[in-house]
Every structure is written in C-alpha cells, then in structure tokens.
C-alpha cells in the first residue's frame, strides 16, 4: 500500500475506523491500476463487493471523504 494514501486519508472521519481502513484499501487498489475496472482492481469478488457496498453505504458521504482529504 502506498504510504501517501494512508497519510491523505487516515484522518477521514467516517464514524467507524473500519470504514476508514476500507476507504484506504479501495483507494490503494484503484490507484495501483487506474486503467482497470473496479472488479479488476479489487482482485477478488469479496473485495469488489466490499467496494460497491462501501460506495452504497448510507453512512458514507462524499463530503466526509473530501473533508478528510482536506484535513491531511
């Protein structure tokens, strides 16, 4: 995992540390293969499902992710 991703996103407040860890994992996967689709970048079905579930979560708002990025 790229250290810059962790530094940029570790302060993101998503209400649960597991959500922040998931965000870091998703960004790491996608940035490692920017040309890949989500399933290709995720590598496994469980990682793909976790990514889509994260994006579909009512607890995750784009503004929360932006704020964490701005706070870094």
Strand content: under 5%
CATH 4th-level superfamily = Tn5 transposase, domain 1
**Can you tell me the overall shape?**
globular
- By DSSP (H or I, 4+ residues per run), the number of helices equals 5
Mean pLDDT: 93
What is Rg?
12 Å
Major sheet size, sense and barrel closure: none
Return the CATH architecture: Orthogonal Bundle
Residue share in helix: 55-70%
Low-confidence stretches: none
Question: What is the CATH topology descriptor?
Answer: Serum Albumin, Chain A, Domain 1
Give the number of domains.
1
Which sequence of SSEs, written as H and E, runs from N to C?
A: HHHHH
**Cα distance spanning the termini:** 17 Å
Quick one: CATH class?
Answer: Mainly Alpha
Q: Which secondary-structure class do the elements indicate?
A: mainly alpha
Q: Count all strands and give the number.
A: 0
- Quaternary state, please? single chain
Please give a quick description of this structure:
This protein is mainly alpha-helical.
Descriptive report:
The chain has 72 residues and is mainly alpha-helical. It has one domain: Serum Albumin, Chain A, Domain 1. It has five helices and no strands. The longest helix is centred in the middle third of the chain and has 16 residues. The two termini are 17 Å apart. This is Transposase Tn5-like N-terminal domain-containing protein.
